[in-house]
């Protein structure tokens, strides 16, 4: 552990002192750190998203109504719930990441257990959303036929809600310590199992949407069980020491940050849900819903790539701020954004080249394929923007800016994007194209504002805030000797950070 810590301090020191190494060496070094987290995180995100992707692909061959029903549940009901659950669990990205950077591994297990308490309680409160899927969709002006089938699917898919409650905190626990390859391996096995079970229960046995729901439940709980076995198998001797009553302490502060994270992510994910609802109110809604759902599934598949960079930059920023390395955190942001944009350009070109062909992956209905192809150019532009925005959101989570980003999301998405989409779609009769254009406009404004905030950030102040957050919320270590060592280490790191800031300021003035 000491050798690893010394090596980490040396590497951080190289990144912190701009003149020690050339820009190329620093970029390569940071890229290695980024990809060490991003590569398995991308693989895990793609594999786990593909669970829903595979479900839609199999259900799409059952019929237009079944495809529309499952798509509405995934994008409206599960989209609503997923945002809340992921957000409530995302407080761990800030707290665990900064605790790892400060070397306070004993906090991680308690943080995760606190998050489990919060996410499981939240799941219990959200259970009626699944039970009353049909009346909720009818209230939202969805067709009766689609709402009835969606309601049946929603009730049977309820166990996945509690699967999310267990899954999100444990994934953040692993990510904060860069233990993500095991998650990728588990997810690959789970996806293989998911494809096989869908083929058996839907294609061979003909169990329809109920079979699709049950297969999804099995897949998600297989992932959870496998991850928990890994957790308790002795690979985290410092971070996991078993269940503790300390998890019930300081829940108030933890809930506050969890709610901020949930609001930030929910406002973003619900934006896409609102777009689905607007499309569902158009004439010939079944075809329009299928078209935009296919595009969103493809967009979300590409989004999983940038979501890996979101996880990676969140870990990198939180780790560096927790360690008091402000310049290293800033440099990590630059490398992550540039790398993610390159992937965004690649996927944008892929959509433009295959816009007449990729709908065939989801449907064999000619009218749905034509409607989907018309959205190809807007989909390509959205994918390019989505290569920037998630990385900047990851920076916000790593630094603990969730509340600020929540207000930005309200303004850009709900005061600009949705009204513009409704105006273009209904008033100007542009239908699905107009609604998507409005959504894209809101994303453009949000991305510009996040870029401006990131460029104007004082990273040294963020490092000091991270130290204060760890000291305030961390609680006392398990024995007083460890406390003395830990406090001494934190104080020396803070002192060094302040001295570096003063020296850097003085040099800047001399220049």
From TrEMBL:
TM spans (from-to): 34-60, 80-103, 115-133, 182-199, 205-223, 257-280, 287-311, 331-354, 375-397, 403-426, 433-455
**Protein's UniProt keywords contain Transmembrane:** yes
Superkingdom of source? Eukaryota
One Gene Ontology cellular component term attached to this UniProt record is: membrane
Q: Where is this region: Disordered?
A: 1-23
Cellular location(s): Membrane
Q: How does it sit in the membrane?
A: Multi-pass membrane protein
The record's GO molecular-function terms, alphabetically, read: antiporter activity; xenobiotic transmembrane transporter activity
Q: Which UniProt keywords are present, listed alphabetically? A: Membrane, Transmembrane, Transmembrane helix
Mention any Pfam family matching this sequence.
Answer: MatE
Which biological processes are named by the entry's GO terms? xenobiotic detoxification by transmembrane export across the plasma membrane
Family assignment? Belongs to the multi antimicrobial extrusion (MATE) (TC 2.A.66.1) family.
Q: What is this protein called?
A: Protein DETOXIFICATION
**Where does this protein come from, organism-wise?**
Aristolochia fimbriata
Q: What is the lineage of its organism?
A: Eukaryota, Viridiplantae, Streptophyta, Embryophyta, Tracheophyta
């Amino acid at each position: 552990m000491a050798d690893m810590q010394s090596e980490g301090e040396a590497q951080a020191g190289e990144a912190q002192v701009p003149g020690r190494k050339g820009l190329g060496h620093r970029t390569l070094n940071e890229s290695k750190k980024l990809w060490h987290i991003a590569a398995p995180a991308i693989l895990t995100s793609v594999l786990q998203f593909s669970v829903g992707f595979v479900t839609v692909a199999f259900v799409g061959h059952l019929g237009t109504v079944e495809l529309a029903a499952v798509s509405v549940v995934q994008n409206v009901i599960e989209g609503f719930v997923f945002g809340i659950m992921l957000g409530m669990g995302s407080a761990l990205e800030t707290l665990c990441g900064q605790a790892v950077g400060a070397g306070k591994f004993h906090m991680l297990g308690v943080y995760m257990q606190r998050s489990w308490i919060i996410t499981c309680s939240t799941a219990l409160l959200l259970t009626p959303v699944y039970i009353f899927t049909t009346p909720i969709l009818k209230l939202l002006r969805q067709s009766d036929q689609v709402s009835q089938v969606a309601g049946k699917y929603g009730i049977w898919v309820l166990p996945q809600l509690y699967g999310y409650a267990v899954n999100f905190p444990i994934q953040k626990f692993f990510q904060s310590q860069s233990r993500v390859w095991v998650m990728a391996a588990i997810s690959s096995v789970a996806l293989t199992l998911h494809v096989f079970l869908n083929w058996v229960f839907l294609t061979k046995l003909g169990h329809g949407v109920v079979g699709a729901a049950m297969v999804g439940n099995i897949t998600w709980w297989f992932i959870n069980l496998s991850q928990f076995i890994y957790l308790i198998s002795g690979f985290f001797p410092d971070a996991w020491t078993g269940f503790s009553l300390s998890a019930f302490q300081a829940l108030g502060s933890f809930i506050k940050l969890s709610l901020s994270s949930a609001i930030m992510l929910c406002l973003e994910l619900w934006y896409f849900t609102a777009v689905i609802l607007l499309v569902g109110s158009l004439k010939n809604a079944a075809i329009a819903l299928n078209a935009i759902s296919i595009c969103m599934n493809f967009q979300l598949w590409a989004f999983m790539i940038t979501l890996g960079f979101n996880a990676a930059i969140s870990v990198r920023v939180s780790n560096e701020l927790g360690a008091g390395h402000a310049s290293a955190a800033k440099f990590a942001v630059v490398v992550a954004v540039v790398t993610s944009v390159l992937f965004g350009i690649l996927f944008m070109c892929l959509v433009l080249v295959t816009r007449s062909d990729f709908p065939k992956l989801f449907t064999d209905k000619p009218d749905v394929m034509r409607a989907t192809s018309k959205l190809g150019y807007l989909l390509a532009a959205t994918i390019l923007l989505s290569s920037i925005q998630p990385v900047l959101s990851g920076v916000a989570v790593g630094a603990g800016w969730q509340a600020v980003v929540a207000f930005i999301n309200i303004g850009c998405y709900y005061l600009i994007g949705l009204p513009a989409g409704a105006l273009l779609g209904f008033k100007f009769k542009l239908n699905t194209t107009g609604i998507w254009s409005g959504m894209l406009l809101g994303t453009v404004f949000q991305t510009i504002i996040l870029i401006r905030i990131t460029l104007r950030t004082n990273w040294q102040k963020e490092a000091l805030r991270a130290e204060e957050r760890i000291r305030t919320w961390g609680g006392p270590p398990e024995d007083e000797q460890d406390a003395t060592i830990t406090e001494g280490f934190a104080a020396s790191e803070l002192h060094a950070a302040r001295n570096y800031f003063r020296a850097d300021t003085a040099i800047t003035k001399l220049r």
